Structure formats: structure tokens, C-alpha cells
């Protein structure tokens, strides 16, 4: 069945694919737009929830094709489940809340440590050359650099093989002692995992025999190409796969004191529609099952998932480039984070400060101190802040001070963040909010380069190289410009001075 929705005058829509925030909102008179969510082929989260500033929402269970013709007609086709088109909710916020109450998971929020303290990943700092000595030195550099301990993610490379989730013995002698040391320093310890299994992994044969691996339409174990080669992939609809993986991960927690896991991959693109699986599930279904498995763990991070709106899981933006431009550069952070919130993912992380693309880091790669500073400022008052590249001891002294100041600024709002987190656990309100969400009817629909943290803080990071001031759209009311203490009347656009060491932000009076 096909559904048609005519856009109202002045109506703008958001939602669907987190990676497409820069294309939002869609509105009459704008560009055409199509999103095929029957198999999510973006590199980030998808949820078929679409919300409008005129108080309407569209929700499709398990995905659909959404087409917008640019002239005001939205077409919903190939719906994979229930379709709910609802109106009469007044504003963007109320439409979202109505959809959340009916269609999003509601319960506890993510652990406070994931939000209040920075997260640290070994990824671009070490790439796959990770070992115990480097991890401990990295942790010591964090604390020694004046930054607080937080969640420390041991990324790809800690394990023996893809599918062999044991510590690589030559790299990690006595991993329990390492974990105890990190815990003693105040860190939570999280390990990177993925659903891929190499044929060289000792468990490959038994997993294949037990029906725990996806099979192709020919009945052979499917071999899929991904960013680290070719591998088999777990069939998460198979009880054998879940039983095996939970046994392995629970064992790591019990034996070494590991606190949680970074669940990478799980993208629908690594499955085919004609795969033979235990549960006969679709590629989107496999992605959702991978995410549901992750939700068993208190400390869990995902980058890709389908239909997991509201779940208490950290949802990270896909790896970003160390770039001032492009759809994967710094300009994408705010739009994609806003899109995440409006798609039902309130606990989102803006990737790593300075970017997380492997190609941008490693031996001989230089880094722009100005970019690192502005990237750090951009993340400072977002729902989460994650470091990898050790900018606190690899940059110039002025930039080191900026990094430390950003982390201290975040710490000053710890109580405020804690309150937002508790509120979101009840309402699933985004922590980071579109201007239109908080200030309806003030012409904020297309403001995509500033945001609200809750209903109190307006944050407007500098996003262009060489810029030392920026325009900020102030909603009606009284606003205090925190870098100087100046109080301004809103309802207008103002120009704020923003030297390299200044993050422009306001408190609502």
C-alpha cells in the first residue's frame, strides 16, 4: 500500500537517516529527496520516524521508501510494518513527544559516565598497533594532561582475530592487571567488537556447524567484504550466535573486569536480501538484532542500527574526516547530531575530536591545530565528547589550554547534563535540540549551525577556518553571552567575537 502526505504551508520535516542531516529539513519548494530505508545503506543509524514543525509525524515500523517531490508531496511506499501518520500535535517538540510516547523505547537512560566525562578511544591514536604498554601510557597521558578519567575504549586490534575475542597474548600480557590499573585510575574499560568472523579464527568451524553464521542463497557460508577484508558474519537471528557471543563477552567481563563493548559494524549493507538465516530476517532485521544484542550491556556503543529509537545505547556518528568541508567534515556534526535526536536517538556522540578516519592519521600525517581546537569546542557542549588523537599532548600549548578549558567547561555543566539525562530517560527528548524544537514559530527551521543543549544553553561553535567571529540567531528573550557576561535581547541575529580560544554560547535568562 502507498501513502501520500501533502505538506502544509511552511511545513518542514526531519528524520529517518542520521547521516543525511545536512539535507534537512525537507520542505515545499525545496529540493526533491528520496530515502530508501527498506535496506539502510547509509553508514549510520536509521529509524523511519519523520517529524514536522506543524505538529505532525510519520512512523513506519521496520522501514520504508520515503519520496519527496519538492513540490509538497511525500510518498510512503514499500512499508515493512505498521504505518502511523498523526497530526494535531502543534509543534515539532510536541509531534516528537507524541511519536516517542507511542513508538520509542522508554526506560532508563545511558550511564551518566558516558555523558558527564569525556570518552577516549585508542583508534586513531594507535590504529591497529594497540598494545598494553601503549594503552597504559595513553591513560597516563590523559590524567597527566589534566583531563578527567572517563570511558576508555580499546578499539580494533586488541583481539587475536576477528571472531576470536581473546586478548592477543603478545600484545596484552596479563590483561587483568591492565584493567585493574585502568580502573584504579578511574577509567571504565570498553572493548571493540564486530559481528565478523574470519575463517582463521578457531571458532569458525564450530560456528558454521551450529548454524551461527549467515549463509548465502546457495547454502554456503556467506563471505562479505568489509573495511578490514573479507569475513563470515554472525547470523544474529540464530540462538547459537547469541549464546556463543554472550558467553564470550560475559566471560571477558568476568575474567578481566571489562565494563562494556563498542559494537561496530552491523550495517544492513553487509547482508543480502536472499541470505539464508535461522529466522529468515531481512538485512535491516539483522542490523536491529545486532543492536538489540548490544542493548544487553550497560556500557554499549553503536554506529549502525535500524529501528532502535529510544534505547539506552550510545549512538556514535560515523567516522568523520579531519576536514573543514564536505559531508563528512566538521560542517556535518551539528546537522547530523540534530537529525539523530529527531530520529529518536537522544544519546548521540559526534565521533572523535579531530575526526576518526584512519586515512587522516598515522605516521607522517600532520594536523591543523586550529581545526583540532574548533573540533574540540564543537563537541564540548554536545551530549557526549569523545577523544582519540591525544590533542592534549600532541598540539601547541595554546591548543592544549583550549582542550583543557573545553573539558572544564563541560564539567561545570555536569549537574545540568545529569538533569537532562534523567529527563530524557522519561521523555526521550533529545539532549541536543534543534532551534525549532525549543523556539517554534520564530523562523528557526533552517538554522543548522547552532543548537540548544536542553532548553537553557544555546551553543554556536565556529566551523570555518580562519574565522574569528560569527553570526548567531537569538530567539526572543534575554540571553547572556557567557564568554563575556554581556546580556543581550533576542529576537534578532547578533555577531559575536570568537577568537580561537572562545566557544560562543549563551545561557537563557
From TrEMBL:
<dbReference type="InterPro" id="IPR013780">
    <property type="entry name" value="Glyco_hydro_b"/>
</dbReference>
<dbReference type="GO" id="GO:0005975">
    <property type="term" value="P:carbohydrate metabolic process"/>
</dbReference>
<feature type="domain" description="Glycoside hydrolase family 31 TIM barrel">
    <location>
        <begin position="131"/>
        <end position="411"/>
    </location>
</feature>
<dbReference type="InterPro" id="IPR017853">
    <property type="entry name" value="GH"/>
</dbReference>
<dbReference type="Pfam" id="PF21365">
    <property type="entry name" value="Glyco_hydro_31_3rd"/>
</dbReference>
<keyword id="KW-0378">Hydrolase</keyword>
<keyword id="KW-0326">Glycosidase</keyword>
<dbReference type="Pfam" id="PF01055">
    <property type="entry name" value="Glyco_hydro_31_2nd"/>
</dbReference>
<feature type="domain" description="Glycosyl hydrolase family 31 C-terminal">
    <location>
        <begin position="429"/>
        <end position="506"/>
    </location>
</feature>
<comment type="similarity">
    <text>Belongs to the glycosyl hydrolase 31 family.</text>
</comment>
<dbReference type="InterPro" id="IPR048395">
    <property type="entry name" value="Glyco_hydro_31_C"/>
</dbReference>
<dbReference type="InterPro" id="IPR050985">
    <property type="entry name" value="Alpha-glycosidase_related"/>
</dbReference>
<dbReference type="InterPro" id="IPR000322">
    <property type="entry name" value="Glyco_hydro_31_TIM"/>
</dbReference>
<protein>
    <submittedName>
        <fullName>Glycoside hydrolase family 31 protein</fullName>
    </submittedName>
</protein>
<dbReference type="GO" id="GO:0004553">
    <property type="term" value="F:hydrolase activity, hydrolyzing O-glycosyl compounds"/>
</dbReference>
Amino acid at each position: 500500500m502507498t501513502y501520500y502526505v501533502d505538506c502544509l504551508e511552511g511545513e518542514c520535516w526531519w528524520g529517518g537517516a542520521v547521516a543525511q542531516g545536512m539535507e534537512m529539513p525537507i520542505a515545499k519548494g525545496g529540493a526533491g529527496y528520496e530515502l530508501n530505508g527498506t535496506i539502510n545503506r547509509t553508514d549510520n543509524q536509521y529509524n523511519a520516524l519523520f517529524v514536522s514543525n506543524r505538529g505532525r509525524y510519520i512512523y513506519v515500523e521496520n522501514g520504508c521508501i520515503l519520496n519527496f517531490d519538492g513540490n509538497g508531496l511525500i510518498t510512503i511506499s514499500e512499508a515493512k510494518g505498521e504505518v502511523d501518520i498523526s497530526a494535531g500535535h502543534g509543534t515539532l517538540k510536541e509531534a516528537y513527544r507524541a511519536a516517542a510516547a507511542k513508538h520509542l523505547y522508554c526506560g532508563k537512560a545511558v550511564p551518566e559516565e558516558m555523558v558527564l566525562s569525556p570518552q577516549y578511544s585508542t583508534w586513531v591514536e594507535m590504529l591497529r598497533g594497540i598494545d598494553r604498554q601503549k594503552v597504559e601510557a595513553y591513560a597516563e597521558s590523559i590524567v597527566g594532561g589534566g583531563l578527567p578519567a572517563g570511558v576508555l575504549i580499546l578499539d580494533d586490534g586488541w583481539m587475536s582475530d576477528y571472531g576470536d575475542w581473546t586478548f592477543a597474548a603478545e600484545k596484552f600480557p596479563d590483561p587483568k592487571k591492565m584493567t585493574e590499573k585502568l580502573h584504579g585510575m578511574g577509567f571504565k574499560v570498553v572493548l571493540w567488537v564486530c559481528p565478523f568472523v574470519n575463517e582463521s579464527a578457531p571458532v569458525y568451524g564450530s560456528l558454521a556447524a551450529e548454524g551461527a553464521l549467515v549463509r548465502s542463497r546457495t547454502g554456503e557460508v556467506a563471505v562479505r567484504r568489509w573495511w578490514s577484508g573479507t569475513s563470515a558474519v554472525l547470523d544474529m537471528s540464530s540462538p547459537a550466535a547469541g549464546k556463543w557471543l554472550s558467553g564470550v563477552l560475559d566471560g571477558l567481563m568476568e575474567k578481566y573486569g571489562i565494563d562494556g563493548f563498542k559494537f561496530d559494524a552491523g550495517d544492513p549493507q553487509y547482508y543480502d536480501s536472499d541470505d539464508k538465516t535461522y529466522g529468515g530476517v531481512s538485512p535491516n532485521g539483522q542490523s536491529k538484532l545486532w543492536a538489540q544484542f548490544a542493548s544487553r550491556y550497560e556500557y554499549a556503543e553503536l554506529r549502525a542500527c535500524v529501528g532502535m529509537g529510544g534505547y539506552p545505547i550510545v549512538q556514535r556518528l560515523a567516522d568523520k574526516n579531519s576536514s573543514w568541508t564536505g559531508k563528512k567534515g566538521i560542517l556535518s556534526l551539528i546537522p547530523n547530531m540534530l537529525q539523530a535526536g529527531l530520529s529518536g536517538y537522544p544519546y548521540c556522540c559526534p565521533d572523535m575530536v579531530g575526526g576518526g578516519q584512519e586515512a587522516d592519521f598515522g605516521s607522517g600525517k600532520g594536523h591543523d591545530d586550529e581545526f583540532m581546537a574548533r573540533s574540540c569546542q564543537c563537541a564540548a557542549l554536545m551530549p557526549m565528547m569523545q577523544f582519540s588523537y591525544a590533542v592534549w599532548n600532541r598540539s601547541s600549548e595554546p591548543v592544549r589550554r583550549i582542550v583543557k578549558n573545553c573539558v572544564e567547561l563541560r564539567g561545570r555543566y555536569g549537574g545540568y547534563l545529569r538533569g537532562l539525562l534523567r529527563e530524557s530517560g522519561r521523555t526521550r527528548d533529545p539532549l541536543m535540540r534543534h532551534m525549532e524544537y525549543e523556539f517554534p514559530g520564530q523562523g528557526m527551521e533552517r538554522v543548522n549551525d547552532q543548537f540548544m543543549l536542553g532548553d537553557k544553553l544555546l551553543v554556536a561553535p565556529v566551523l570555518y577556518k580562519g574565522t574569528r567571529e560569527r553570526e548567531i540567531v537569538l530567539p526572543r528573550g534575554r540571553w547572556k553571552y557567557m564568554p563575556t557576561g554581556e546580556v543581550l535581547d533576542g529576537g534578532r541575529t547578533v555577531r559575536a567575537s570568537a577568537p580561537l580560544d572562545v566557544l560562543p554560547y549563551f545561557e537563557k535568562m
